[in-house]
Structures
1.
Amino acid sequence: MRIVGEWFRRLAFLLRRRAVEDELRREMESHRAMMDEPRAFGNTLRLRDEARDAWGWRWLDELAQDIRFAWRTLRRSPGFTLTAILTLAFGIGVNIGMFRLVNGLLLRPLYERPEEVIAVSSRSTKPDGDFRGVSYPNYVDLREGTTSVFADLSAASDLFVGLDVGEGPRRTRAWAVTANYFDVFGVPLALGRAFSPDEERPGANIRVAIISHRLWQQRKAGATIIGQTVRVNGEPFTITGVAAEGFSGTSTPGPELWLPLGAHDTLNSEPASATRGLSARDVHELTVVGRVRAGVPVESAAPAVATVARRLEQSFPDVNAGYTFEASEPMRLLFMPGARGGAFTLLALTLMIMPVTVLLVACLNLADLLLARGHVRRQELAIRSSLGGGRWRITRQLLTESLLLAFAGGAAGLVLSSWAIEALMTSLGPLLPAAVNLPAIDLDWRVLAGTVGFCVAASLVFGAWPAWTLTGRAVVADLKRHVGDQGRQPGGIRIGNALVIGQVALSVLLLVTGGLFLMSAITAVTADPGFSLDGGVVAQIDPGLAGYDQARGRQVQTALVDRLRTTPGVEAASIGSGFPFTSGDSRLVAPVGGADAESRSVDSVFTVTGRDFARVLGLSLLTGRDFTDAETLPGSERVAIIDDALAQRLWPGTNALGQLIQFLDEETPDARPPLRVIGIIPALKHSINNPRPFPHVYVPLGQQYSSAMLLHVRGRGKEAERALLGTVARVIRETDPRVPILGLETWRDHLDNTIDVLLLRVAAQIFSTFGIIALLLAVIGVYGVKSYVVSRRTREFGIRIAAGAHPRLLLWHVLREGSRTTAIGIGIGLVLALGAGQVLQGMLYGIKSVEPLVLAGAPLILFTASLLASFLPALRATRVDPTIALRSE
Amino acid sequence: MPRDTGLPPGTLMMVVLRVLMRQPLHGYAIAQTIRQRSRDELSVEEGSLYPALQKLLLKGWVKASWRESESGRQVREYRITASGRRQLDDEMAEYRRMSSAIDVLLKEA
């Protein structure tokens, strides 16, 4: 209580400072007037100062003083200030940018009190048991059996749907959710209402939808959005609500649309749930997330759900035997399943390494500049020190200057980072598989705290050492002597060279890593997939999104391929569930018969195709025959085409034609009817990360229906590609205008846009950008130090010239000195880069981490750049006028 | 000529509180009183007195108010507060305890 009162009075003093000051003055005057000997009263100004110190605000006064002084000093040298702020803006800006991304994707909680929210998953009790989804009846039993633990337990299913908000259908992610879904997260809807239990009931098919905040803003409809309709898979859905801004459920990126669980069955084109529906106990489609009741320990969730699991095992052994429920933290990154807790921190740290390295380069740079400037300012510092400024006091003043610079740089960096993120998001937007609801990357306290942290850390790194060094010199000597040392190499220069070496080394490191990723990206894009890409065009269609059932979908797919085959300019056309060389479906393929059949299974890429699939890729059958049109209809004979990679693995040395295969993925042997191999085609590579041919198996359209398919069309040569794009679009529209075209591009573009190539490209882009920024900073640093060195040695150069040294010799002398520093830096940088290459090896494609081109190229660029940077100062050295130089000191 | 006391700041604050116990006084009067009551043994310089008074204000042990003196001059008068009295009691008790302990020690040694 006492302390509180004291602080209260202390603050009151601060607020009415002028009045108190005035009171003190009057009081002292009256005191003085009463004295017999008024002159004995001391210096009133000093006395007032001392009296005021009792209130403990002296540090604030000094800080204000320091800031005012720093402001004046910096304003007097605008060139230095601008350079410093720009350097810092880059250095801090990239850090804030990356940190904002990391914060949005990984750190910032997606909802209130995240520790209470728990995911429940169904898992086999076998060792290393597989996870499966949860069926709706199991979920209901789980919900009802755990009401004492969970305040709300919700279920949801992730879907891809065709969404049409009036601009034609496009593929997007939607979550079908239970009525209590939004309650779990404690984030109220921005508008409208959540779903009702009636709408949740499987099979209810009440067509209502909640849209994302972003979608709502794009439509610019205000509150009238409620009651409007959007088309989902061709059917009108009434909008009943708008999710809160940035809401994305448990994971990021979030969906654009939430639908009631009751509408799930009609929206999902997967055959299993389409025929049986969510109400079946063995359709395990849902993910379950709940919030633990307030006051109930989070740990009690695991035993509670396990108890329900045991009860379910007994009541429904045919479905639930051998499965239990597990409680865990919900998954956050959709594109990185399994990343939780510690792995997140690691990922966040890894992502921050690069920008922090750039900031380090920027700091070294500034330390250079400050040291150089400090030596020029030594007279000023000496005077201040001789007037009674303690070392600590002067150091503090210099640090204030650094801090001011850092905050100015940080503010500029904050603006810079906003642009950078905008640019990054815009460039990432079209690359994402569907329009997704990215997390809000805006400012929050973490970003602001991070910015302040970066600024303070930076100013300490670049400011503390120079400040301490500069204030520690023998001041008297500095006062007497004019600026400029004679005989010895000045300490500032030696330190400056060390800083340049550090900068160059770090720049080499960043440039080399950037180069490695750049080369990976180039190699990946130019990689040979095993077939010719020339003249190929691919269109992505999904009749299911127009609301077509299987029968009509098949009809449309067949009609489209037939029309394309007869279109002029088309050499071959086919249809397939996947694109070669990109990740896709896979199956465990094993021969039928023989005791060891199962152990000989081979993991193969699985593609559903029509006739002519090999032909459209420009491959010829090695042996056997292609599928017939009859085999692309349901109920036809079960046949398959495999490639020679699979044939050799399954039947080495013997003819695979006519053999029987089965897919081991189906759990029961009844569900694995054998397929007869009728043809063998050349193997294709499967992924850019694996240059070896990968086993493939192809089954005809008749055996499995998939609504989302790719139409492959090949025209005559590369030149025809562009024209063919228009032709294919026209043919699809003419055949059935309701079928949405979800993508239409050349094969080459399609491959360039696959996620693997994309990641490489993003990495190459980011690393190169960081490398270039570091290079720039290093060049500025080299230039700064060289200029400083030359200016400090003006006198020496003057003497040399007076003694008859040839200007060219002098130029050579300065350049050679600069080269030595750079060379040492490059040497250290190369060692670092080799180490980094080892670490990054797994992320590179098609090249070794020791890549001569990169290892030679990056240093060459740096060396040339730093040579150029020292050229100007060197030139200045040759132009020193000996008479002026000698007189100047 | 009285010597400058060089009293430690804490002790000076106690002395000032003690002087204010009898009646409210302004700064000059405080200095005078200390001097007279110590029979010219102790004097307090303005350089020590005013910081001490500010400290007492900060601690809330005294309150200050402006008043017109008998000579018609505006003076700032300090008045001890309840918590100032408590503080003085505590410190006096502590001081007596310490000084008697030291007394005993000095006599025995």
2.
Amino acid sequence: MRHTALLRTVTLIACSLCLLVVVLGAYVRLTAAGLGCPDWPGCYGHLSPSGAAADLQDRANTTLASARPFELGKAWREMLHRYAASTLVALIACVAALTWLWRRERIAPPALALAVLGIVLVQGIFGMLTVTWRLYPLIVTLHLLFGLTTLSLLWWLLLELSRPRAAAIPRPGAALARALAGIGLLILILQIALGGWTSSNYAAIACPDLPTCQGSWWPPADFRAAYALQHGAALDYEGGALSAPARVAIHLTHRIGAMVASAALLLAALIAWLQPQRYVRRAALAVLLMLALQLTLGVSMVLRGFPLWLATAHNAGAALLLLATVWLNYSLQPDRA
Amino acid sequence: MNPIDAQSLQLGATWRDYLALTKPRVVALIVLTAVVGALLATPGLPPLDALLFGNLGIALAAAAAAAVNHVLDRHIDARMGRTRNRPLPSGHLTPARALAFAFVLAAASMTILLAFVNVLTAVLTFCSLIVYAVIYTVWLKRATPQNIVIGGAAGAAPPVLGWVAVTGHVEPQALLLFLIIFAWTPPHFWALAIARRHDYVRADIPMLPVTHGVEFTRLHVLLYTLILCVATMLPFMIGMSGPIYLGIALVLDARFLWLAFALKFARRDELPMRMFRFSISYLMWLFLALLLDHYLPLSRL
């Protein structure tokens, strides 16, 4: 029992830190600080940006600094993200070790804990690639998706450690509710990927108005260029490398995706509500509210002229909506015990 | 009957009866929404005379409308358990006196608004009074199950009236506050109508649960609650309110949605009344949240 409580606490801290790292990552991207330290894992070969700053002052030339000027603020943001992420890796290693150590007590499935560790290590590699490939959009988007996968799996582990779920005896309509929650999750993941694609291609400001885009319902849009996964060579991809019509196409897809995802999640939450268990209904309500929050943040971003805090909140909203949807799926899973 | 009761009956009307005639608790909520409308109309504090006289005029008009409603509905009120003890059905006041009282209140309201506020506020307040006291009470209420939806326009007017008292013209932000109360009215009222449907059958009022059944009404309560949730997000979307409002609104919406879902699918007998009571606190807290957000620095984000 004490083992369960301890593991739950460590997992809760890891999960909270993971959410913070994801949002911090979005903040780094949104303040164009992703190349604040153009090398990896250090910053201009130093452990901290202040060390780098002192060093760069000493020798005014340096090959690294010649390409882009050193900015202390951006370097700090990027390094804070890396420090927090490294701490997270250590915490997740603890969670995996404890789960493995106590595997006979059947507190939590050790396979899940090991999977989180595996994913977060892959995520570390994507973090490196984000920098070394100089913000190549496909890498940036995958970095976001693996970050959210880490978060979701940690969350699932936390749920395993603390929340009840559907009884082994199936109730009428449970299979339908489960299927719809699964479809909702799948569509949401696609929509988040589109959101990451919008951000990494700097396509948000392509449509500065809503519900129209540039004053028209369907402005010139280049979908072929928008979804060519490979981008042409560029010095780096900060600020985006695509043409204006391609960015419009990306933004429009994300808007249509928002409508599709909303419909799917609304339906999933509604059908889940028909299940009698209180914890299923709580999860369904959480999905509805986080959906309302995320749609509000998305629309507000455009209407209020893309302020930084709202754009960051829109990323946090995506993470929270994902967690709510994962929770709904969890609560509808039949208990194995 | 003990001697004191007998004495008070012989003395006839007391100030308590006149107060009851104005539906003070309803007027309090109306004035709250009007005050919030007035305060939200400007970045800082609005001119004190517009704030004070504007809301006094609106309050008096609302009280007058309530008194007229008592007079016109006295036969219905006598047949419903909830309203049997109102001043007119109980015989404490005569209809003529009540009507005279309503007229004095309305005249005072118009005088104050015309003399100290502005013509537009007076005209809009008068229109709301007529819509509620005459069009709704005399005709709509008995004509269609959409009575409270359409009549809700009168109840949704106060924040606009408060706003216009300060600025002198109608603005989109004020209409947003109107929209919120307009969307709030059907779930608020229909929850009560479900709980008191037998009263409405007896009084022969075509409320939705009476004409289309309880199940249909529950569905419409849920659908209007969803619309309400969307409407309450709009002040944030257009940058009229900030994150504090958004946070409080989401919490309130969560509770309201939970009750609306429970009303539709759980069907316990105490739910309609609980939803009705919560809907009142909901509107109160929502408008206080608008106010709080308006005066805290975070709202300028």
